[in-house]
Amino acid sequence: MALYSITMRWLVVVYSLIFMSTSGSAQKWHEPSDTLNKQRANFLTIGQSCLWLGSQAGLYMAWYSQYDQEPFHFFNDWPGWMQMDKVGHVAATYQEGWILYKMNRWAGMTEKRARNQALIMSYGFQTTFEVMDGFSSGWGFSWYDQAANTVGSGLFWAQQKAWGEQRIITKFSFWQSGLTNAPWFEGSRARTLYGKSVFEQWLKDYNGQTYWLSANVWSLVGKPDRFPKWLNIAVGYSVDNMLGAESNSWDVITVAGQSIEELPYTSPLIRQRQYLLSLDIDLSHVDLPPYLTWVKPVFGLVKFPFPALEINSHNGLRGHAIYF
């Protein structure tokens, strides 16, 4: 999931840079073109191609080249990570399609072409990684990953086709879980899995990540007058105390006298699923001063902190004064 997060981040950066322009020309550089703009289209073609090829090469060198390869095969990874990775696939593919669509419209593509090309690019991009997994001895092609990619792409494309806009979007939030600071074997295990720095944990620690579906109330109820256009309701999914793909059991190294041995260990921490209900803000319906326009695409990906209700698979219902 780390690679998908990095890819989305760079897409947001590129899109934000487009919207940071405050040119005083008749048509500002960040505004979508009414007709196909060849200069912008060429810029996007080169940029998207470099992103695609560069990420494939970078991932292969940094990851796949370190593991044995074998003939293409399939792998059932549904039981792993309490399906947080699958939710991440949905969110990543959706966001990629949505951001690429907006870039295509900025270049002056027609609505249909921009929508369809964004679908093909985002879905094809994710499928490439699944195929690479299929040749890795440590994994394999996952139909569940591919199904999650399909859901994410479909969520973007179907809304754009039916409504001409996105009324339900995926978002992401992160707060350090604290597991890396836990005592005894749990802290060591968490640091091995999720890293020591905040940046590593932001990419790897599912316990600190929450994925959201954020729905714009105004657009879903018919866009009535005198109703706040910016108000969203968000439902989220996260996990806690997860220290392994399928269980919280692993081998630990113990020293007894002159001998070193690995013994099985099961953590007393209970793995938990967390379902959340919160509010959110849709900045696409908020007028911002020109110097803050770049904030819109950023918070089209990241959820605003708000109070939240949580239903926990172990502790039941609880509230958060602020949740991020």
How would you describe the overall organization of this protein?
With 324 residues, the chain is of the alpha+beta class. The protein has 9 helices and 8 strands. It has helices at 2-19, 38-62, 84-106, 111-134, 143-163, 184-194, 198-204, 217-220, 295-298, and strands spanning 168-174, 209-216, 231-240, 249-256, 259-266, 272-281, 306-312, 316-323. Helix 3 (84-106) packs antiparallel against helix 4 (111-134). It is globular, with a radius of gyration of 22 Å. The two termini are 19 Å apart.
Brief digest:
This protein is of the alpha+beta class and 324 residues long.
Tell me the number of helical segments per DSSP (H or I, 4 or more residues long): 9
State the secondary-structure class: alpha+beta
Number of structurally distinct domains: 2
- What fraction of residues sit in β-strands? 15-25%
For the biggest β-sheet, the strand order reads: 1-2-3-6-7-8
Could you describe the largest sheet, including whether it forms a barrel? Answer: 6 strands, antiparallel
Mean pLDDT: 85
Q: Report the span from N to C terminus.
A: 19 Å
Task: Please write out the topology.
Blueprint (H helix, E strand, L loop, with lengths): L1 H18 L18 H25 L21 H23 L4 H24 L8 H21 L4 E7 L9 H11 L3 H7 L4 E8 H4 L10 E10 L8 E8 L2 E8 L5 E10 L13 H4 L7 E7 L3 E8 L1
